[in-house]
Design a protein that fits this description.
Blueprint (H helix, E strand, L loop, with lengths): L1 E5 L5 H11 L3 E5 L4 H4 L2 H6 L7 E4 L2 E4 L1 H8 L11 H31 L7 H22 L12 H15 L8 H11 L2 H14 L3
Parallel strand pairs: 1-2
Antiparallel strand pairs: 1-3, 3-4
Helix pairs in contact: 1-4, 1-7, 1-9, 5-6, 5-7, 6-8
Bound molecules: glutathione.
The site of glutathione has 10 residues, from helix 4.
Amino acid sequence: MLKLYGNLRSRATRCIWMLEEMGEPYELLETSVRPDDLQNPAYLRLNPNARIPTLVDGDTVLWESMAINLYLAQKPGPMHAASAAVAGLAAQWSFWAILETEALLLDLLSHRVLLVEHVRDPSHVERNTLLLQKPLGILNQSLSGREHLAGDSFTVADLNVASILAWGKLSRLDFSPHPSVARWLERALERPAYKRMWDSRRKVSGGL
Ligand SMILES: N[C@@H](CCC(=O)N[C@@H](CS)C(=O)NCC(=O)O)C(=O)O
């Protein structure tokens, strides 16, 4: 059975969402971000970065959440990337989302939600919101007149990008200047597999 090291309050949720979409049996091996979980020799042998998530599939060990999902999309089933074009677009959009949006969205989330109130800095919110307009504009253009990023059904391209943009929703980012992104993200986050992941997360964390 597939084994995923991580937890429901981390980037492992991207891979959990993917596994739920696939309907593939998997075991979530609860791993926190504490040094005793990440810095121990057994875990470092799997992931020398001392980060989560890590996927173990028989002899194959993979880290980097987006790469894990792109790997899972090679397996048969509902999330299979059916053509080289879909696989290529999924890689393109995944790298793009990590490079162009993830750091900005994480900093926005930190200064809107995650940090204790007295250290939140509104200038970070302003800056990140401003810098996100360019990539969001590009995504909006790509989604105008179409429902998905690659091909004509929901694929790992949509899942990987939406899993990052979900941080924008949690940060109360105003998506209204980018209506196609707003509609596409709503649809992605309405999916039963995402809701199952989110419900499990709520149970363990009591909210965000
Ligand atoms: N680019 C990596 C980032 C992994 C990452 O930073 N994971 C965080 C949890 S969300 C972590 O393990 N942090 C522990 C640390 O940095 O010490 C991925 O997408 O998998």
